[in-house]
Amino acid sequence: MPRPLVLSLDGEEFSVGLFKVDRADLYGEVKIEAFDEKGNPASIRVLAADGNTLIDKGGTALEMVDKDGNSLERKQIHTVNLKGKELKPVESSFSHVNVLKQATVEEYLSLIVKSVYWIQPNEGESVDLLLEHLKTGRIYKFPFSYRDGIESDEAYMIGNGKDAFMVIGQCATLQFVKFNQNVQLDSTEEQEISADDIDFDLL
Amino acid sequence: MPINITNPKNRDAVVATEGLLPKREFRYVDEKGDPVHTQKVLKSDVTHDLPELLKKRKKLDKLANDLVKGDPEVDMESVGLFLVDTSRVYVSKRGIIHLVEEYEVIMNPDGTERERRPRKKLPQNINAEIPVRWTGKFIKKDEAVQRFVFINKRQLVHVNGLTFDFLFEMAKDLDKRDSLLLLRGGEKGNEPIVLNRGGKQYNAFLEGRVKGDAYCLIMHLSNVELKKPKELDGGV
User: Fold this and answer.
1) Residue A192: pLDDT band by 50, 70, 90 thresholds?
2) Sign of the dihedral through C-alpha A161, B210, B224, B23
3) Do A194 and B228 touch (CB under 8 A)?
């Protein structure tokens, strides 16, 4: 049973469950299998700069280091805004009521999407009001944080005419470009990306 | 990353595309207020992973005992090594290999195998001799967002005065229509967009916004519709 998320729309509160929707759930996926010239299975590893050290998945970690390269513990790290003022942590969205505010389609189109969830009402609850609003083409947003943390993402409630979805991501910095703000064309060679889904089914 | 694109009058130009970054309004500092950054470090290499440790000890119980008594999984010489300039290589039981045969295994949504075939790497088609087409097929923004999930975005930017006019007019046209334009690649102008060789195929839609004498042209990329999987159709 997914964790209940409590939403508020036009003063009415209702609790919903989130069901993650992945591309693989809709269309399937493509896995890549590799073999050497003798037919032995092969897989990708990371090779360190020494040309000798091979690292498998799970063999690396991310450390926070200071300007001298010394490792820091979490309690030694502070989060500040761009003016240097310390920020208060953000609470998980599952710990309070989340008020939905109407958003514009341009705001939604600025979203760099991280994940998509299908919304279902929890037992004894109804999302009819939300579905009614979404069917008219309205979009709603609220700050969303899965767990307590430094910053929240943006969650947008959007419908497809039948169901309600929650699309989570972060808003991009869109820059309006003037005449004297041209860029240089990048002349680097196109790079191959690593083994990945290349399925583009059914669209 | 350059893109070769046509306008409604079928004039083509090569312009730049840039990735879009999220707004970041915070940073991490240490107790002195100096900036900190993340660094990828080595935890263990393949010679200290479970399969290798098990090879020497044969039994899991023996390995478990060794792990309790000591740290056979840690190489004190290399643990914590800062990882920079790494490469990705293919490895088989013969070691690092350079000649690789790749196969695509196409899986159904239920996890069953549908097909198996030699891997075909599609070439990129956004900066090819044949430009990405202004198809003339528009979809209202409100309708587009209810049908597709735009999982990737790139902003188109001019590289000189001529391409400023070229892109500004496209943005103005799209802004007026309040619609997204379907972009297509390939010789017949009917192929999805591929940004990198061997990469994913996307349906690309162009959005234009204008503010005074400035424009913003965004290419929205989608390879998934806004709908729920069949397995959830019966409710949960």
Assistant:
1) very low
2) negative
3) no
Radius of gyration of chain B (CA): 25
User: Do A178 and B213 make contact, defined as CB atoms within 8 angstroms?
Assistant: yes
3-state secondary structure of B226: coil
Contacts of B25 in chain A (CB under 8 A): 81-82, 151
Taking the model in full, what pTM does it have? 0.85
- Measuring CA to CA, which residue among B205, B224, B226 is closest to residue A159? B226
Distance of alpha carbon A19 from alpha carbon B232, whole angstroms: 9
Q: Kindly provide the residue ranges of all beta strands, DSSP E only, lying in A94-144, ordered along the sequence.
A: 98-99, 101-103, 111-121, 139-144
Task: Note the pLDDT tens digit of each residue in A22-67.
Answer: 999 999 999 999 999 999 999 999 999 999 899 998 899 999 999 9
Residues 6+ apart with CB under 8 A from B233: none
How does the average pLDDT of chain A come out, rounded? Answer: 87
**Who wins on pLDDT, A77 or A169?**
A169
* Nearest-angstrom CA–CA distance, A168 and B21: 15
Residue B130 forms contact with A (CB below 8 Å): no
Question: Is A154:A104 a contact under the CB 8 Å cutoff?
Answer: no
Please report residues of B whose CB lies closer than 8 A to that of A30: 104-107
Label residue B206 by pLDDT band (50, 70, 90).
very high
* Torsion (CA) A112, A118, A124, A125 in degrees, nearest 10: 40
Quote the tokens at residue B220.
Answer: 């929205």
List the Cα angle B87/B88/B94 in 5-degree steps: 115
| Chain B residues 152-171 with CB within 8 Å of chain A | 153, 155, 157-161, 163-164
Neighbour-count burial of B205, counting CB atoms closer than 10 A to its CB (0-12 exposed, 13-18 middle, 19+ buried): buried
First-to-last C-alpha distance (Å) of chain B: 44
Q: Which of residues 31-70 of B touch A (CB under 8 A)?
A: 31, 33-47, 49
> Residue A155: in which H helix or E strand, if any?
strand A153-159
Flag if A118 and B228 touch (Cβ within 8 Å): yes
DSSP state of B72: T
Rg of chain A, C-alpha, whole Å: 23
